[in-house]
């Protein structure tokens, strides 16, 4: 290309010299200056084009590499015990369909939590009910070939967007509860039969469209929008996020979305500060002048150890997953974000965003829903969990919030520690307002100390210690 350009330039000069036109010295000076200026501009444009091309090539190569790296070409099997109950976001599933089924393998706190649930909810559906419930959760993963993010050359979030995707899954679960209800199920092979099923399909698709992978007012919860608003947190496209940063980012995108979408008018997001929920602040946020109450997405970033999870908190975390208003936990293992939705015995069940898929154009009629639902649950020993995480709750009414405040304390104190002690809870409930406290409580570890664990660019993702793909009862 450069050789052709040079020949054309020389040909142009020859034609000019042979044209027989005589130039004055002044006009020749002006012409030379003009040529020099044009040459500089062409050089600058060429440099910018080369940089742009270089960025696109690098992005494409990175996408190709991540497609291989995060393609899940090796399929493993996840084993589920026939003897132990499986918990999934407040619902319990068991092979044994009678109340005589043993719950001995669940944690003491988790067993205690079953007292708040109807017996048919605990035993009524069996392991097939778990499969249906799990596949109905919305799955957000790495995507490739989406529109370039503003201020970058990224056309994929492979290798850096896993915590943002985990946050999207947590938020999507809250929206499913808000618009469809916790008992809603997605049946992939079902033919729509009536008006109710048609409406549910429309709501299902509407929620997914909000997370579409491009900058658009129709997708206010997209990763593009999250990255854009993340700049206020000091993040650039391609930076890693910690659970606390994602919690604040989710609040920011929901606040922005509510200005353009009336569907969010009755929904608020509260992020706990210093691992403390301030009841009065929640009332100020959700209580309307006419006495009405907005539904609440409550996000609580916590850090439960230094370099490793303090295992004393393991039973507390699993017990929280037995609560019907829990929408899951975002965290993972070090430098590998996951979205935890349940557990069996000492293993956490999760959805993994580390799977690179092609972008889906969710603005097309009847777009495919298959890639937004995972049929392959994964499990991870709770001992491998990173201590930094964010716990989510969806509280639809004021009564739900008051119930949460009244019952949650018993789930926050580790076993073996006096319930009257407030020294070591996972997080705290304060009945006042944060603004009225002169010196906020000194939490054991600042939630922001966890960020370096997630902010390393030289990360080596590995799924070799994870189980995946099929249900196998043993």
Description:
- One of its GO terms (biological process) is autophagosome assembly.
- The chain is built from 14 helices and 15 strands.
- The chain is an alpha/beta fold and about 475 residues long.
- The strands form 4 sheets. Strands 2, 3, 5, 7, 8, 9, 10, 12 and 13 form a 9-stranded mixed β-sheet that branches. The protein has a two-stranded parallel ribbon with strand order 1-15.
- It is globular, with a radius of gyration of 27 Å.
- The termini are far apart.
Characteristics of this structure?
single chain, 474 residues, alpha/beta, two-stranded parallel ribbon, 37% helix, globular
Quick gist of this model?
Residues 128-406 form the Peptidase C54 catalytic domain. A hairpin with a 2-residue loop joins strand 2 (86-88) and strand 3 (91-93).
Helix content: 25-40%
Report how far apart the termini are: 65 Å
Shape: globular
Query: How many strand units?
Result: 15
Please describe the biggest sheet, giving its number of strands, its sense, and whether it closes into a barrel.
9 strands, mixed
* Low-confidence residue ranges: 1-30, 97-124, 443-474
- Given helix and strand content, the structural type is alpha/beta
**Average pLDDT figure:** 78
Helix and strand sequence: HHEEEHHHEHHHHEEHEHEEEEEEHHEHE
* Total number of helices: 14
Beta percentage is 15-25%
Rg value: 27 Å
